[in-house]
Specification:
The chain is about 35% helix and about 20% strand. By secondary structure, it is of the alpha+beta class. The protein has a domain of about 150 residues: Peroxisomal Thiolase, Chain A, domain 1. The strands form three sheets. A nine-stranded mixed beta sheet has the order 5-4-6-7-1-8-13-12-11. A two-stranded antiparallel ribbon has the order 2-3.
Amino acid sequence: MIQPAITGSGIFTPRHVITNDELVVAFNAYADRVNAENADAIAAGRIEPVPHSSADFILSASGIEQRYVMDKDGVLDPDRMFPRLPARADESPSLMAEMAVDAIAKALAQAGRDASQVDLVICAASNHERAYPAIAVEIQNLIGAGGFAFDMNVACSSATFGIQAAADMVRSGSVRCAIVVNPEICSAHLEWRDRDCHFIFGDVATAVVIEPEADAQGAHFTIHGTRCATEFSNNIRNNNGFLRRTHDQMEDRRDMQFMQNGRKVFKEVLPMVSAHVLGHLSDAGWSADTLRRLWLHQANKTMNDFIGKKILGRTPEAGEQPNILQDYANTSSAGSIIAFAKHSDDLNPGDRGVICSFGAGYSVGSVLVERA
């Protein structure tokens, strides 16, 4: 059996930043306009006013201080509150593919590989900008890779599920060099006019190179095990799709954007994730006290603190469970990979860690890695 390894990682970060203060100004202007337009109905008790948001509320609820986005002006327009991302001609690279190519170039450079050596591309993300042809096949063409490519969607767990698929194919010998890329344009599926969630998401793309450890060109991470699990739930949902695609439906139906029952998610997902990781560690013969790092899905700081404490059996020390939420916000499947890419170079050979993601589905994926 061939031993797979992560030999490179890369991040594409959009150039536009929206701080909490900027976001609150736009949201509160929107709320004031809606409340003024519906003053009589609000006074009569027929509808509830839209409450104001605040930077303090956002930070305490999530740990988020800012987010990167592909378009800032549309989001901060109180009369729009949605990014302006014009459709591109069929002959032009898609937005997701353009983001992906940047992240892949960085990951390949770190791995010491050329795109011509890649024989598998998995585009694993929460939302894809079209049904077909697959974004992954477009990316394969743009970078000049061989082999084959396909899209994958397991919401926020897409990256770890993609890593398992790629690692399994490397183990079997069916591919020699795989790319798992996660271009996440989360700003396009967020309802920016909903106070309970208007601050959650940001945009980014991440990529990792997976190949046989024997082929690694330098420092890398041995993949000792991967594990995925799913359990159906409606508590995180987005009903937008090709059966429901008209402009009127997008405008009128709240369920066509990101929705979640946050309290139920917190109550149900956290025990599931903790038990999943602890079971994976146990079956691999690893103990939590041998872990140097947890790279968790970046959804909410409170959630990550809870999971880290459950896995380690104590409060994580500084650096053991890095958060990037404060800078990137929730970037769906890419979050744990951002944390991994930014907080792994300091580990020494033999240091162990877990990459873990979780989200809608419910879904949870974990990857056991060791610095080599």
